[in-house]
What does this fold into?
Amino acid sequence: MNIRKAPAMLACGLAVAGVLFAFQRPFREFNGVEYRIGQIPLPPDYQEKTEFTFARLMYPPGEGGINGYWGRDLDWHVGVSDWTQDFPRADRHFSLAVRRLTRVHTRSAEQCVNLDEGDAFDWPWLYAVQVGEWGLTDAQGRALREYLLRGGFFMADDFHGAFEWNVFEKAIKRAFPDREIRDIPDDDPIFHTVYDLKERFQIPGQAHVRQGYKRPQYPQGTEDGKGAHWRGIYDDQGRIMIAISYNSDIGDAWEFADDVNYPAPFADLAIRLGVNYIVYAMTR
It folds into this structure.
């Protein structure tokens, strides 16, 4: 992408997004795997009408996934399921970073999006965590495909090892059985839209900082969680529709970005990657 055109393209994209405000579903709070409602303070301006909102994808659990935590089986629609990992702390930390590092007018609180409700089109950027344990349905796959082919962007994060890769790949083929997953080349615009990210290393979760990678819990994946991979699915015009961070935990780096015990280089790269992905999604 021509960098000189980026501001104008971004302004145009955000102007169009502004028209959608009146039709967007209201903000909803959910209990997460790690945090109950109220543990992470709701920002006072969470209802502000903004140009961009961090939208988190809700999904049912799949192979190896958990429908409920806290000792009881909960419906994934109400939270406390795999899709709520790092939630909402990661979402709000990253939204604050976007506010500080860009001129993108960003809401301080996240939006949880259920593909079954048909409102994904209100949000130009979707994020999902632990996609190696998701159970995307056929209907949700079709909805995700339509959303992405119409110009949406999806970031798939935090899954490790061969078993989880296979679960992710099987599910994403419900959206794109006809498109291959490719390694994103170093010179792709997504790595240079705002920050030049020529060096990208594996980003471990907070619990795995000492070893530098997450060792999958499955028997066939004892050592295959090593080595970061940045992959994507492209549309016919060469635009990345799905950005895949395999063997890295970007969400954890956002979640613990303010923790002095979490290494700054991991948080820095995670935030810069996310900023690049947002601006890329809004200008391509």
In short: The helical segments are 6-19, 89-101, 138-149, 161-172, 250-255, 264-283. Residues 15-22 have pLDDT under 50 and may be disordered.
